[in-house]
TrEMBL record:
Pfam families: CREG_beta-barrel. InterPro entries: CREG_beta-barrel, Split_barrel_FMN-bd. This is CREG-like beta-barrel domain-containing protein. It comes from the Eukaryota. Residues 18-172, 204-368 form the CREG-like beta-barrel domain. Keywords: Signal. Residues 1-16 form the signal peptide. Gene3D superfamilies: Electron Transport, Fmn-binding Protein, Chain A.
Length: 382
């Protein structure tokens, strides 16, 4: 087995960072990324719900540490006091020729929790300036859709960006920090890219397009109901694998380490959602993701219950991980030294959006019956 600790010892030791330096790296990640995964709980069933949203914390080199969104005016209508949510970012969204696996601790992952509220007063103009600077297409979105500036009002910022586990960052320290990449570990000397075996299927083939997206995705946001924060959703980045070659099943497998907050959540309530976007593909997709929130940049949520794999399925999972995650060898050899479990999803609902007019009418049965796409993995020594 290749545990995480073995990889850590193979690298030069670095001095421990101060809380301020950790906050600087969090601010760097927030400022560099332009989209992430929003997780909420359904108001009635309390089932986790996922979405893909663009955001901005300010024009380049003018970071504010505030999370602004441009969403339809009724986005928070069902929650007049604001929508409790978790917004998850990954450094993987910045690295399409990956030198770190999305699940590698050095590939920074941040979850900002709080309440999403419609902005008022001067914050509306401040939010528009921040959003339009990073997402110029938003200026031309149709007025008939009543897009409005919203802000995630923070109650917690959690991040993992190196070995030793994730941690909360004091909001005062987070807001006082200036963006600076402070992760002390060097990246791998290898890179890994999953190349499409074919172009995305035609727009009319909804099920095939959905399966194409899931098969090519190597990471997702895992949305759960939080144990640490009762009544709140939690989102976290996990590496996923949906089959090898043409053996795609449409049901991703994933590994969750025992110390991870998601592990405690799943032990208490196995209902979960996996959210994936074409913008997160490690290799160019259909070329439709000039703006992540544009409907033609495909996104999908797979909702259901996460189930621990049996012994036979575990062998399949390790083979999938070996092919799709060569930069994270521990995923193919029993997992991290901390312990953990491999899961798949018992699929109950799908939301798939890849064109204008709202989510498609795609059923679980249609999705599972679609043909498996071809995926090719290439590992490159650089």
């Amino acid at each position: 087995m290749w545990p995480i600790v073995t990889l850590a010892l193979a690298l030069p030791l670095a001095a421990a960072r101060t809380p301020e330096e950790i906050a600087q790296n969090a601010r760097w990640l927030v400022h560099q990324t332009t989209w992430g995964y929003l997780t909420t709980l359904d108001a009635h069933t309390k089932v986790p719900v996922g979405d893909t949203l663009s955001f901005s914390d300010g024009a380049l080199d003018h970071s504010t540490g505030r999370f602004f969104f441009y969403v339809m005016g009724d986005y928070t209508a069902a929650a007049p006091q604001g929508l409790p949510c978790a917004f998850t970012l990954s450094q993987a969204s910045l690295m399409h020729n990956a030198t770190l696996d999305p699940e590698d601790p050095r590939c920074a992952k941040l979850t900002a929790s709080g309440i999403l509220r419609k902005s008022e007063g001067e914050d509306v103009q401040l939010g528009k300036e921040a959003l339009f600077a990073r997402h110029p297409q938003m200026k031309h979105w149709p007025a008939s859709h009543h897009f409005a500036v919203h802000e995630l009002q923070l109650s917690e910022v959690w991040m993992i960006d190196m070995y030793g586990g994730g941690e909360n960052i004091s909001l005062d320290v987070f807001w006082a920090a200036q963006p600076r990449h402070t992760t002390p570990w060097a990246a791998s000397s290898r890179s890994s890219v999953l190349q499409p075996g074919s172009k995305p299927p035609p727009w009319s083939q909804l099920a095939d397009r959905a399966r194409w997206l899931v098969a090519h995705s190597v990471w997702a946001a895992l949305g759960t109901s939080s144990v640490r924060r009762p009544g709140m959703a939690w989102g976290n980045v996990r590496s996923v694998a949906d089959g090898v070659g043409t053996n795609s099943t449409g049901l991703p497998m994933l590994y969750v380490p025992t110390p991870d907050p998601s592990s405690a959540d799943l032990a208490a309530d196995a209902r979960a959602v996996l959210t994936m976007s074409e913008a997160g593909l490690p290799a160019p997709g259909s070329g439709s993701c000039g703006e992540t929130e544009d409907p033609i940049c495909a996104r999908i949520t797979l909702s259901g219950r996460l189930r621990v794999l049996n012994a036979t399925e575990l062998l399949d999972a390790e083979e999938r991980m070996k092919v799709k995650h060569p930069l994270a060898p521990w995923l193919a050899t029993g997992g991290a030294h901390t312990g953990g479990q491999y899961f798949t999803i018992e699929l109950e609902n799908i939301t798939f959006l890849d064109f204008y007019g709202g989510p498609s009418n795609l059923t679980v049965a249609q999705y599972l019956a679609a043909a498996a796409p071809q995926v090719v993995s290439k590992e490159i020594i650089v």
